[in-house]
Design a protein that fits this description.
The chain has 339 residues and is mainly beta. It has six helices and 22 strands.
């Protein structure tokens, strides 16, 4: 059956109803007319919008200061899905007014996010949240406790008279237990640096990069009086870096002895004869962008100058150890030296 659909908005069209509402009149080929109030059209097409229904599936990969959360959207409530993510607190039934993280992707109806900045050996309550036109909905609650282990395995190697860590630092708390600020977006990285606050991130904000390359820290974290290095260690000064390279034959050739035997781009591996095991973890720029993983390894010193702070650079295309300085709000790798 073919239809002619005409929307009439003049008041003369409303006489068929007892109340004055705009109508959609459907004229059928058999000359009959069906009239529907326009305020009922949306519910006929979309159904009645109700709150989002979701469930928190699991909290796993729990560490000292982080955890991985997973949730599922059961129903969008016939509406448009807005922001969604996770909120947590040390008190029961947290809301988004507490700590929260937004998820940016959804696989079918499942989504997940890492949460950072937790305190070790602490009980937390977490819920998932999502919104549509009806507002914010919350999931069931899961209670979990963070671990209380050493943040980083400080594998070390004796090189000359010095004892160096042979892995990049991966702590997320200062020596006194205070959490180091975590930046999950370029805006958060820039905000921390503008305020002169210590901050860390994983390269490309991907925790899997931390397993090999550790964390990237700005120099404000290196210089924080609460101590970035664990007990019995410190961040090496510019002069202490020079002691290392001098022992290895000078900066012109020390890089080859310090670089790891695998992982460097363009056949740029070293022989790691020093045991330093230098890795190309790249860096986080002052604006929160990421660069040169597998190509460069940049390591902070504790020494500053009038334009920034000194660091050492290992690169895929040279046997040298390059001494340079850069802005304090860049994110570099960190090695520690035994006291």
């Amino acid at each position: 059956m073919r239809y002619l659909i005409l929307v009439l908005l003049s008041m003369s069209s409303f006489t068929v109803f007892s109340q004055s509402l705009p109508v959609l009149r459907i004229y059928k080929t058999d000359t009959s007319i069906t009239a529907i109030p326009l305020n009922e059209i949306d519910s006929l097409v979309h159904g009645t919008i109700v709150p989002v229904n979701l469930t928190l599936l699991d909290v796993k990969s729990i560490k000292n200061t982080s955890a991985l959360c997973e949730a599922r959207i059961i129903s969008r409530g016939e509406g448009t899905l807005g922001q969604f993510g996770f909120c947590w607190s040390t008190s029961s039934n947290p809301t988004i007014s507490a700590n929260k993280v937004f998820s940016t992707s959804i696989d079918t109806m499942n989504f997940s996010s890492y949460i950072y900045g937790l305190v070790k050996n602490t009980t937390y309550y977490i819920r998932a949240f999502a919104s549509n036109e009806m507002g914010i909905s919350y999931s069931n609650q899961i209670e979990f406790s963070t671990l209380n282990k050493e943040d980083s395995l400080l594998e070390s190697v004796k090189i000359g008279t010095q004892i160096w860590t042979s892995r990049n630092l991966e702590v997320s708390t200062y020596r006194n237990g205070d959490p180091i600020r975590y930046a999950s977006t370029p805006a958060e990285w820039q905000d921390a640096s503008t305020k002169g606050e210590g901050v860390w991130c994983y390269y490309q904000n991907d925790p899997s990069n931390g397993e090999m390359y550790g964390k990237l820290y700005n120099w404000y974290a290196v210089n924080d009086p609460r101590g970035l290095a664990p007990e019995l260690y410190h961040i090496p000064s510019d002069a202490e870096w020079s002691v290392l390279t001098d022992y290895l034959g000078g900066a012109q050739i020390a890089g080859y002895k310090m670089k790891s035997t695998t992982g460097w781009a363009n056949n740029g591996n070293g022989d790691n004869s020093s045991g330093f095991n230098g890795l190309p973890g790249g860096y986080c720029d002052f604006d929160g962008g990421f660069n040169l993983i597998s190509v460069d390894g940049n390591f902070w010193s504790s020494s500053e100058n009038s334009r920034g702070a000194w660091f050492r650079d290992l690169s895929d295309n040279t046997t040298k150890v390059i001494r340079d300085y850069d802005y304090k709000d860049n994110g570099f790798s960190v090695r520690c030296l035994r006291d």
